[in-house]
Structures are given as structure tokens and as C-alpha cells.
Design a protein that fits this description.
There is one protein chain. The chain is mainly α. It has 2 domains: 103 residues, 5'-nuclease (Rossmann fold), CATH 3.40.50; 45 residues, no CATH class. Helices cover 53% and strands 6% of the residues. The two termini are 28 Å apart.
Amino acid sequence: MNVLVRIGHIDVLPQLFGGVLIPPAVASELSHGNTPREVKTWLAAAPPWLEVRAPAQIHPTLDIDDPCEVEAISLAMETKADLLLADDKKARKAAKERGIATTGAVGVLELAAARNLLDLSSALARLRGTNFSVSEHILDAALTRDARRKGTPP
């Protein structure tokens, strides 16, 4: 969510998914002192489609150090979420092992582009201008798929 706020595309989440749940650890991370000001400002005036909800219990088999990822996966399991937004490889693997579909920020942007909610090339250019860590291979593959959907050369 952090990077979607920073690149100006957080508004695609409710258009794609309706409501979004985040656990308290994620809300805390989004309002941490080191978090960019625009993210903290956005969270302070959170839109109605965003709900902070604690999982009833933390799933005991999760072997992940990050409390944000542990709470998010536990909440996704509990609510039988359609999709978990996670960019961390270990969290995505743990979610997949538990039958939870995942996508990352690039996947959200690609889905939004497929639904004509944004221009993927522009969104990824903005993403490249942040400190978000993603391989060029992933970005190039997303742009290639986008070009194919549009019927244009990559």
C-alpha cells in the first residue's frame, strides 16, 4: 500500500477489490516515523474502503519474522480473503502454501492497467522513481504483457 500511495495510485484498490482489510501491524508500519509523510497523511484520513482489523488469532505455523506479514496472512486465512497484497517473497510463499492467492504492487498496477484504470508504463516509471525494490525483469515482463493485451509491440 505504501508504494501505491507514493506513486499516486492507491485509488485503484477500491476500484479493483471494493474493500481492503489491513491488520494493526500494517497500519502501525504505515504510520511509523520513517514512513513517508504522504503515506502517514493518507492513513490519518483513511478512506471508508480501508478497514483495520486484527486477526482473531495468529496462525501458529507461520515462520516469518515480520509481524506485518504474520498478521496479514493470519487475517487473510481467517477471512478467506480473495487476495493478499504482499511483496515479500517469504510471505508470498507462506501464503501460497496455505492456499491464499497473492499479488504484489506490480501485479495490482498490471491488473489496474488491464481494466483501463491507469497507464502501466507511466505507473511503472513512477515506481522506478521510488526506493521500491523490484527487478527490472519483473517490470519488463509486466510491460510486455500489457503491450500484448493492447495489441501493440512491446
